[in-house]
Amino acid sequence: MSKGLSLWFAISSIILLSAAAISISYNAFIAIGLGILAVCNIGWGFIIKAKRRNS
Protein backbone atom coordinates (compact mmCIF):
# COMPACT_ATOMS: atom_id res chain seq x y z
CA MET A 1 0.00 0.00 0.00
CA SER A 2 1.34 3.44 -0.84
CA LYS A 3 2.23 5.89 1.90
CA GLY A 4 -0.48 8.31 0.79
CA LEU A 5 -3.17 5.66 1.00
CA SER A 6 -1.90 4.51 4.39
CA LEU A 7 -1.97 8.09 5.62
CA TRP A 8 -5.53 8.47 4.32
CA PHE A 9 -6.75 5.44 6.26
CA ALA A 10 -4.92 6.52 9.40
CA ILE A 11 -6.32 10.06 9.36
CA SER A 12 -9.84 9.00 8.42
CA SER A 13 -9.86 6.42 11.23
CA ILE A 14 -8.66 9.01 13.74
CA ILE A 15 -11.37 11.44 12.62
CA LEU A 16 -14.10 8.81 12.84
CA LEU A 17 -13.01 7.60 16.27
CA SER A 18 -12.70 11.19 17.54
CA ALA A 19 -16.18 11.99 16.26
CA ALA A 20 -17.51 8.88 17.98
CA ALA A 21 -15.85 9.90 21.24
CA ILE A 22 -17.31 13.40 21.04
CA SER A 23 -20.78 12.17 20.14
CA ILE A 24 -20.98 9.86 23.17
CA SER A 25 -22.23 12.74 25.30
CA TYR A 26 -24.83 13.78 22.71
CA ASN A 27 -26.37 10.63 21.28
CA ALA A 28 -25.37 7.03 21.93
CA PHE A 29 -26.78 5.76 18.64
CA ILE A 30 -24.65 8.17 16.61
CA ALA A 31 -21.61 7.17 18.67
CA ILE A 32 -22.26 3.48 18.03
CA GLY A 33 -22.76 4.13 14.33
CA LEU A 34 -19.54 6.11 14.06
CA GLY A 35 -17.68 3.41 15.99
CA ILE A 36 -18.91 0.72 13.64
CA LEU A 37 -18.02 2.90 10.67
CA ALA A 38 -14.52 3.42 12.07
CA VAL A 39 -14.00 -0.33 12.54
CA CYS A 40 -15.21 -0.96 8.98
CA ASN A 41 -12.82 1.72 7.71
CA ILE A 42 -9.90 0.08 9.49
CA GLY A 43 -10.94 -3.33 8.15
CA TRP A 44 -11.25 -1.95 4.64
CA GLY A 45 -7.69 -0.64 4.93
CA PHE A 46 -6.42 -4.09 5.88
CA ILE A 47 -8.35 -5.66 2.98
CA ILE A 48 -6.85 -3.22 0.48
CA LYS A 49 -3.37 -3.80 1.93
CA ALA A 50 -3.74 -7.58 1.58
CA LYS A 51 -5.04 -7.33 -2.00
CA ARG A 52 -2.22 -5.03 -3.07
CA ARG A 53 0.38 -7.29 -1.44
CA ASN A 54 -0.80 -10.35 -3.38
CA SER A 55 -0.93 -8.53 -6.72
DSSP, total strands: 0
Q: Largest sheet at a glance?
A: none
Distance between the termini: 11 Å
Number of helices: 2
What's the helix-strand series?
A: HH
* Rg result: 13 Å
From the spread of the alpha carbons, the general shape counts as elongated
Average pLDDT rating: 92
Poorly predicted sequence stretches spanning 5 or more consecutive residues: none
Structural class from helices and strands? mainly alpha
Approximately how much helix is present in the residues? Answer: over 70%
- Give the quaternary arrangement of the chains: single chain
- Quote the beta fraction: under 5%
Brief overview:
The chain contains two helices and no strands. By secondary structure, it is mostly helical. α1 (3-23) packs antiparallel against α2 (28-54).
Description:
The protein has 55 residues and is an all-alpha fold. It is 87% helix and 0% strand. It has helices at residues 3-23, 28-54. α1 runs antiparallel to α2.
Topology of this structure?
Elements: H1 3-23, H2 28-54
Notable features of this structure?
87% helix; 55 residues; single chain; mainly alpha
